Fold this protein.
Amino acid sequence: MTRATRLDSTALIYLVLVAVVAVSAVLTGVEGRNFFSQGNVWAVLTAMSVLGLIAIGQTLVILVGSLDLSVPYVVSLATVIAAGGMKGLDGNIPAAVVNTLALCAVIGLVMGLLVSLLHVHGFIASLGIGLVVSGYLGTNYQGSHGAAAPDLRLLGRSGIAGWIPTAFVILLVCAVLVTLMLRHTRLGHHVYAIGGNRDVARMSGVRTALPVVAAHVLCSVLAGVAALLLLSRTGVGSPTIGSQGRYDLLSIAAVVLGGTLLAGGKGSVVGTIGGVAIFAVLDNVMGVMQVNPFLKDFVRGLVIVLAVAVYARRSVVRRPPRFGASRPAVLDVVTGPSRAGRKGESA
Amino acid sequence: MSATTAQGRPGRTLPLTDGSLPRRLVRGAVTPGGAVFILAAILFVAVLSANPSFGEPPQLIRFIGRTAPIAIAAMGQYYVIVSGEFDLSMGAVIATQVVIAGNYIGDDEGRVLPALVLMLVIGALVGLVNGLGTTLLRVPSFIVTLGTMLALGGLVRFLTGGAATGNPVDSFREIGRGGIQDVPVVEVLPYPVIVLVLVMVGGVWLMRSPFGRTIIATGDNPDAAALAGAHVWWVKTRAFMLSSLSATVAGILLVGYAGVHPSVGAGYEFQAITAVVLGGVVLGGGRGWILSAAAGAFALELLFSFLNFQEIESTWRPTVQGVIIILAVAAAGRAWSLGRRPSKSSPPAPPAASAPSPTTARPGTETGEI
């Protein structure tokens, strides 16, 4: 029974995705173009990869009951650091990549420690760290900086059979790894337990600090990987590329769209990828129809609310199989929606 | 001076309502809601030492006038946060109102009053949509208000083409930039200060009314509030409406300062949330005082003034802001959790009282008790 309801949760988001794709295909057809053409599929998958990687990290952080608003600044920082380190030379790639990801990991570590040890709400910890990073970026970098190595740029253009970009393959690999981590490791189970109820998890003998820190570190590192993918496309590091992409709010929206509970403890990476795909398809079709960029935001906002509304009422009675019978359903029906803002409040 | 004085209930002695007023003030000052006043005072002294003329009444009153919009926005955000939700749509509401003011009023003096009514109605409507989306559609408020933020912001930018358009008549702008002339001591009493005081008084009155009590109860534990007979959905919806109305008032004041551009109000939601959190209001709801939220806004603005006077590059501003927020919240979290532990001298509370849990019912916590 739990198996069926669980499939239902992710299945629903993919049903919405299929509907969106169908409508998009029709609309693209009306414009006299083919949605399923090679170039268009490539474009959609490429568009998915950056937001997708960030959203995977965001899923982890949200599952554990925290929030990460610093991703846009981490992405910007990672692009300038990586581009500055590469200086357009292939030989510098390994060092630059390692440096960048290590820096991201340190940022995530600081955030994780703030959340887990000092009990700062994830919203505030990540907002604060984001502001710190943005101040650093604003002071030290004006305009674009450095240059991507040719090999990295080649990576941005390469793909499988001209249909699937390498960036998307990286996204899939990361998604599979994180899913395996969540489902089959102790760390993953602890992530769900802490997101469900930090105090109960702690009293059951779970060390709550490690999973929280791990989730934040992974989120920042994935944001760093996303930044490298962005860099492979743009070719130069930009101190504003993250905030222009509004990856903080869009990634959270994608995670929630994918059926993950904003309060933590319930959700999956598979759903998140579905949410990201919906955004990518929408953006693509609006691009094809040449919708005014400002109007795009209007449509995006409308879709986010409507899509979440479609299953928000349903998802409140659903829970992962792991916790199938442990809590009375009545409580969830009453509380699920109303406690959306109550994630990981410091105890 | 603390949450407790506003929330003490007759007929039942709460720990913080015993004792004389000075003792209560001291005890209140060590709660996060009280500490923000001390923080603001320290920052004020710091600014004063950097620039002695800042303390002259005319300068000071102008500073208060400048801070009024963000303080009003913070108080609006307070209602939503204390009820356990977020309102990210504030900046977009401000932008909408500013653009409406610019385009609807134009040069027509006669349209000032209808415009004010129209703006307030639109503000209430946005709040209603946010509230109903959160409570009836059961979409998390973070997502609903993010949606209204994108939708409203996108619509306003689309309609204006992203550029400054229209210019409201001067009499309307006077609300934001004008004031009563020839007042003793302060020379000029800006209208924003008067509006701010009115909003503060209204807010304090509202939080002491049954609605205020219910909103805090709802934020602390929606299940318990619902079981106790509160209409949680309507309480929360009203909180969202108050938030959007506050954003509208902030927008009206901002027209005077900033002129008509769809980017006015950008980032206000995070500024307001920062101010509220700095004021010791707990994200997740149920704890905090409305004037602490306003004090948080003043502390933030004083910090910016201080950085200006220190001639620190303005690009470092976000960094300092980020560090201060984290430190303040870390300290506040400590203070709240200390305060929630039963004191050793008092008779032991029921066993569950020492185990506050964020996601299930929290037995032993009173409205406003710390």
